[in-house]
Each structure stands twice: as structure tokens, then as C-alpha cells.
Write a structure and sequence with these properties.
The complex is a heterodimer of chains A (245) and B (263). Chain A is 24% helix and 27% strand. Chain A contains two helices and 17 strands. In chain A, the strands form seven sheets. Chain A has a three-stranded antiparallel sheet, with no helix packed on it. A three-stranded antiparallel sheet of chain A has the order 6-5-13, with no helix packed on it. In chain A, a hairpin with a 5-residue loop joins β14 (173-175) and β15. In chain A, α1 packs antiparallel against α2. The two termini of chain A are 22 Å apart. Chain B has 263 residues and is α+β, with helices and mostly antiparallel strands. Chain B has helices at 3-27, 228-262, and strands spanning 37-43, 46-50, 68-71, 74-81, 88-90, 97-100, 104-108, 114-117, 123-124, 130-131, 137-138, 149-153, 158-162, 170-174, 177-179, 187-190, 193-195, 204-206, 215-218, 220-222. In chain B, the strands form seven sheets. In chain B, strands 7, 8, 11, 15, 16, 17 and 18 form a seven-stranded antiparallel sheet that branches. In chain B, β7 (104-108) and β8 form a beta hairpin. Chain B starts with a helix and ends with a helix. In chain B, 36% of the residues are buried. The chains are: A alpha+beta (245), B alpha+beta (263). At the A-B interface, α1, β2, β8, β10 and α2 of A face α1, β1, β2, β3 and β4 of B.
Amino acid sequence: MDRMLYIAMSGAKEVALSQANNANNLANANTDGFKQDFNEFRAMHVEGPGWNSRAYALDERSGTDFTPGPIKVTGRDLDVVTKENGFFAVRAPDGSEALTRSASLHITPQGDLVDTKGDPILNEGGSPVNIPPAKSVAIGSDGTISFLPADSKTNIMVTLDQLRLVEPDIKNLQKGLDGYVRNTGANLDQANIKVTSGALESSNVNTVEALTNMIELSRKYEMQIKMMSTSKAHAQKSDSLLSLN
Amino acid sequence: MERALYVAKTGLEGQSFRLAAISNNIANANTYGFKSGRAEFEDLMYQNVRQPGAQATQNEENTLPSGLQLGTGTKAIGVQKIFTQGNAMITNNQLDVMIQGKGFLRALDQNGNVLYTRDGSLQVNQNGDLVTSSGYLIDPNINIPQNVTEVTISSDGQVSGKQPGNIAPTVLGQLELSTFINPAGLESVGQNFYKETLASGTPQDKNPETDEAGSILQGSLEASNVNTVEQLVSMIEAQRTYEMNSKVVSAADGMMKYLNNNV
């Protein structure tokens, strides 16, 4: 049996994995705040006695693309998005601090400020924000949360809290298995970041790139299969070398 | 079976869900008191195909720096209602009221369940009781006798009318409003009505012009707050994303077909 069959097989298998990653990017082309995942192949040499002739392919998620997605204006007070390299902090279900660039917030019956998944958004001190009964809530350009108390007779907003805003080094950010982005570097201090309310950041998936990628991966897959059938032909030929007729 | 196929399936489902939400908004672009809904998505779990830090070779220093985590697609979390104020439509009808603020009118259905609405196109039934356009009694009940002319509803919700022989108008009742801390958590039950849920919090009943309930404007109705331009743009986006995901389905299908035909 020709060993090339296994090399080609590993190629086909890894391309299929990469295609799945690409499909995930496209499936989330409309998920607000989604960041697309990079995917790359690496050659893995098989080391051992003899000629170093075999290199298997290995598909990796080498990282996530943190470039900002397009901003879409929604006009809703509690839709917020950060500018530059800033991030908000939310408390992930496992209790750790996750980062996000945009959040569509709402207020629970208990007055907690949470995002669409129900995770509390954190204030400057790193704890959840609670808002007393209010006529209206506004988020300022530096993340200040102010509200108009429900029993207020005037139009004077009361300052309540400030959202936690951080500016991590993009290299230290990692997307976990639960889809939350976390900072793996040192603890981050409150940063001076601009916040815009009434807008959301849409997904940063580059659909053109993803579709082109999809075509490329499909064709690469077919090439690997072609190599597999070539190896089949080789094997058939060598089997028939010593046949008597 | 092909992973990409299933991931693309979640994309297709998500976009058709989004289109359903958009078409409901557009269908209700002219419904009084309607609040537009926005479909919201999250990415699904990621699977660890290769653990970062796994041994790449026999050599201990040779580990995989990043591994391979594959996402499994997208999921619609739900449709979030956006409770911004709609425009005032002047109708000059004396029983049309519009709420300028966060309050809801209360009505009782045939079984006595409390429903909440922003649609203030009120009418009277055969007994002279004030009802919503679907015939449900307004709570608290307000009766308008047959001989009353010129009903006036003040901005703080007091309903009064002129009766023959009286110079001063007679007070017939008081409209009440209910507010919720999280109106987006209300359950829409159709016919412009909402029901209280755990997520909405308990209703706070109060008179108009107290706290955040808002004031009553007689002779106008609140138009729907659907921004049709935004809806049409979202529709284009949803349609194109749907097409892209269906392309992924055919690509994955093509890969499998090629494999079956050539090996």
C-alpha cells in the first residue's frame, strides 16, 4: 500500500475541519459582536529512521480576528458599543470576566443590568450594576450610567456608576470554548475609552473572504481526494505487475 | 458526516428566524401601539478538536501553541421588543388616547385575566362601558351613560362628560396605567396585548402623570415604532446571509459527492 494515501487522507480530513470553521464564521455573519476565527494549516513532519519524506497537515485555530465590525445605529438607549481598542467587561457564567466590544443591555425585574445572554455587565469596580426604578437610563460617552429616578419630579439625571472599560493587548485575548473572549494577560485597569450608546457593533465576518475561502477549501479537498485515487491506481498497477495474463 | 453541513444549517435556521421577525415588524408597520422586535443571536459552543498545548512530537518542548477549536454555528436567542415611543397620529376622535411615557393601559379579557396594551383606540360597548378595540373591558371600569355628550379625557387620565341640564362636566372615572421595570420581558399575546411574566417584573399601577407612567393625550393614537427603512435593510442582510449559508451547504455537499464518486 502506498503511504501517500495516508498523507492525502490527512490532508482531506484537515481541510474538512477548516471548512467547518469557515462555515461557523459564515453562520455568524449576522451575530452582533461576533469575531471571526482564523484558521491555518501547519506541516507536521513524521520523525523517525529513514528519509524524512512524510509531512502530515494539521489544521489550527491560530487566533481570532479582533478588528472592529461595522457599527449599526439602532437608536435604543441601552445598546452600547466601544471605540478604538476598548472592551466592556461582563461576568461569564463560570464567574470569570469576559470582554465584549458591544452589548445590547436590558434591565431585569431586580434592576440588574445584563446583556442578551443574561450576563451582568460590570462596573468600574468589577461588580454587577444594579439600577433603581427609573424613568429612563442613559449611558454617557465615558461609560457613566445615569438615571432619572421613577419618583423624580424634575428632569435631573442622577449619576449612578461607571462601566468597566479596558484596553487589553489584543495578543492576550483568547476565545474560550463557550464563545466568550477573555484576557489572558495581566490584570487590566480602567481605561479612558469612548462609549457610544444607541448603536451596536455587527459581526466582523468578511463574507467575501469567507466565500472565497470556501471555494478554495472545496477545491483543495478535491485535490486531496484526487491524490487518494491516484494512490489507488498505483496500488492497482503494482498488484497487476506479476499477473500471468 | 460533514461538520460544515450542520454548522451551515444553523446559519440557515437563524436567518429564516430573523426574516420571520422582520416580516412581522413590516406586517405591523401600521398597527397602533405596536412595538418592533429585533432578532438577537449568539454563537454556539466551541468544540475542542485539538487541545492547545498537546504534544506535537516526542520532543517535550514541541507542543501545539494554539490547538483547534471549532465553532458549531449560531443560535437565535429570541426577539427583543424595543419600547421606544411611536409617533402621535392625530385622529380627533374623543375616545382615542395615546400614552406619552412608559405606562400601559389595563384591560380584562373574557376570563378576567389582566392584559396590558399601548393601543388606546377605546370604544364603548352595549352597556356604555369603555372597552378596547377588541371588546375587552378597561380596568378600572369606566361607564359612559347614554346621555353624555363631549367626553373629555384629561392628561392625568380623568374621564368626564357633559350631561344635559348640568353646567359643570360630570366625572365618569379615572384611567389607570401600569408600568414595568423591564417592558421587554412582557409576553406578546397578539391583538396588541401583553401579559406580565417573571422577566417583566410586577406591574406598578398608578395614575397618569405620576412617576414614569406618562401622560394621556386625547384625540390621538400612537403609531407603530417600526422603522421601515431599517427593517428593509435588515431584510436584505438576512436574505444575503441566508444565501451564503446555503452556498456552504452546497459546498459541503459537493465535497462529499466528489469523495463518493472518486474513491
